[in-house]
Amino acid sequence: MRDAIEKAGVLIEALPYIRSFRRKFVVVKLGGSAMDDESVTRSVIKDVVFMEQVDMWPVLVHGGGPRISEEMKRAGIEPRFVQGQRVTTPEAMEIVARVLIDEISVKMCRLIEEAGGKAIPLSGRASSFLLGRKRRLPDAPELDLGLVGEITRVDREICYRLCDGGVIPVVAPVARLAPEEGGEASAQLLNINGDSAAAAIAAGLGAEKLVDISNVPGVLRDPNDPGSLFSTLTRAQVERLIAEGVITGGMLPKVRACLEAIQAGVRKAHIVSALLRHALLLEIFTDEGIGTEIVA
After folding, report:
1. 290 and 282 in contact (C-beta within 8 Å)?
2. SS (H, E, C) 5-22
3. Which of 56, 184, 261, 286 is deepest in the core (most CB within 10 A)?
4. CA dist list (Å): 154 to 7, 117, 130, 273
5. What is the CATH T-level fold of the domain 22-295, as seen in this structure?
């Protein structure tokens, strides 16, 4: 009986959150490294399906960096990165699109359907859902990253129609090169950093939340001490931690993506660990949460 009462208490605690997020977009970014363990992926998928079942509008954006590197090496192409950006030749772009769209997106949709939901893959390849332009590094514009881009337009109407119909969009971070003003749409595809893509999609949809799920528990003052987790950070605090060198390495692009989303009007951004079962639901539907929440 005690267990039953505790379960009822959990549902009561979740009720106001379910009400407040009803028919609102929540962008969930699942990192490539977090997808190495299929049991972890399936757990996240179940959380996403639950969100849709309680009338939230989840949009799942996935990465796939490790798989892309693996396939590039198999094809005899050595992966090369500049400031964390994958240099993407036309040959590499073919591999990027195949891995992200034909392999990972298809798999994510299948897992969603196995969990009782409905899903459809989205990208800039088969539609104009994501349009972008070639990206230049601000501090080194002379460096050519190849077919690396940044998103300039998100077709909100496509997501609205899918989510309104009970379908979960599964988005691969591949955009189509935006046409010149007055010109025709290009067939050229661009490779978009997954964290940046999720931030741009959240901003373009006017999402209530952006949640980044990876193999880290959130922002830590000491990477070796889980107890040093920051539960809530403001934009100003994040900027100070970056300046102090507390936020570095792989956490830096995630945090910057969260800041971009907030600056564009997304109310809150979260970084949570995929290694904790149902971390997504715990962060969204409980008072305390379990990761790092970044607010304006």
Report:
1. yes
2. HHHHHHHHHHHHHHHHCC
3. 261
4. 39, 24, 5, 27
5. Carbamate kinase (3.40.1160)
